[in-house]
Amino acid sequence: MTRTSFARSGKKKPEHSFEPVGFFVLRTPLLPFDEFTKWSKGLEVMAALDDPERCEDAYAADCEQLRKRLTSIFTQPEVRDALFLASPNIIKPFHL
Q1: In Å, how far from its chain's centre is CA 40?
Q2: Which H/E stretch holds residue 22?
């Protein structure tokens, strides 16, 4: 229903209604998909699932490795700028 049809029908307009604005926005990813697959390459935990002792150590090593890789991605200026635009309050807590 449009605004005028609500007025004619006597129904109260919903508080959060949407209306077309006549344009659209197309967003594309900043980084290529290969960045995502590279980020998770060479992890140890999947190979260590059958050995509980080794699995714990592999999990800890993978967490450390993933944090390092993520930090290197977040320190790229274009990624920091994109994060700031999307969510300005995320920069300070993570010291980016």
Answers
A1: 16
A2: none
How far apart CA 88 and CA 9 sit, in angstroms, is 43
Q: Which residue has the tokens 């129904």?
A: 11
Q: Taking Cα atoms as reference points, which of 74, 77, 50, 48 lies closest to residue 62?
A: 48
Confirm if 74 and 96 have CB atoms less than 8 A apart.
Answer: yes
pTM higher than the cut 0.70: no
Q: From 13, 31, 48, select the one nearest 82 (Cα to Cα).
A: 31
Distance between CA 62 and CA 47 in Å, rounded? 12
H or E stretch including 58? Answer: helix 52-74
Q: Could you read off the pLDDT of 4-18 as tens digits, one per residue?
A: 555 566 666 667 777
